[in-house]
Automatic annotation (TrEMBL):
Pathway: Amino-acid biosynthesis; L-arginine biosynthesis; N(2)-acetyl-L-ornithine from L-glutamate: step 4/4. It is found in: Cytoplasm. Its cofactor is pyridoxal 5'-phosphate. It comes from Pseudoalteromonas porphyrae. CDD domains: OAT_like. This is Acetylornithine aminotransferase. GO terms for cellular component: cytoplasm.
Amino acid sequence: MQVNRDLFNHVMVPNYNPSDVIPVRGQGSRVWDQNDKEFIDFAGGIAVNCLGHCHPALVNALKEQGEKIWHLSNVMTNEPALRLAKKITDATFADKVYFANSGAEANEAALKLARRFALDIHGADKTQIIAFNKGFHGRTFFTVTVGGQAAYSDGFGPKPAAIDHCDYNDLNAFEALISDKTCAVMMEPLQGEGGIISPTSDFIKGVRTLCDKHNALLIFDEVQTGVGRTGSLYAYEELGVTPDILTTAKALGGGFPIGAMITTTDIATHLKIGTHGSTYGGNPLACAVAEAAFDTVNTPAVLAGVKEREQLFRAGFAQINEKYDVFSEVRGKGLLLGAVLNSKFEGRARDFLVASTEHGLMSLVAGTNVIRFTPSLVIPLEDIKEGLARFEKAVADVVNA
């Protein structure tokens, strides 16, 4: 059998259009394809591979747990799940954890919990969910409707009701939308897919204040920002705002699928026995790997290292921009960064991604106008330097084409 890109067209549902490159092995922040071409990984599996590829702590956890027990069911609990939940609650505002398999599942649980809480406490009229344009919360029908990108939710028939949107960072629009019928507000504390948009301090604090005024739960989707990505364990810690519910996935497992919804005891009480569940959620294999990832990231050295690496990236982008004048700004925080294309190159983010691949660099986009970078949180400094050199060559190719 020829295992190549052409086989994809024969056997896979055509909802993706992957590159011709098929990686076969990785080590740290470097990856090799079927032809043994080397790439530096500035993509991190879309902010998932927080410790790069084949990190010893994760490999060891997987091997050790793989020889013990993989899966039970939620008829029984297991040690890795309990240990991980305790570590998460010890490190955050939360008292209780629900484990799922992905960010979308964690968000689905958060939204169902918010609706159930409002119904139990306030009655049947309190159903409105507010979210923000260009937000992204997953691909289930509920979460994709709450996400603020119609292109992802249109075309599947009637959508879940009582979901409204306004612009991120527009506090006046939000204030006009929220009312005593609002049960929850879901937001990213730094928009990822929508273009790497940081919240203003007035906006995010104003959202919290208005949620309190109208007895609405504030849900932070930290699927992309969580587990060290912004330089703190979770982004909310540096914003001066604490949510009622938080979702985490992506980096939580360092590449192994796992998600979690975390909240307070008072709110968690409303997901009574039988109200929600997951066959694989909280399985021992995922939780053992996630525990190793969480322990490794949640240290002062790694978190401080994220901020140090951010400055190296920003300095590198500035140097490239001085020479080629392609970016209007660099957005984001920590190692969730977006280089915004200026008017001369508007809408051409994918061109830069393709050129980067040609030069042995893996990158991402966030929309058509932003080149996104979400590398390993522990990427070696020399890999940053070499990756930026490759990116400069890609920029030169696009500029000179």
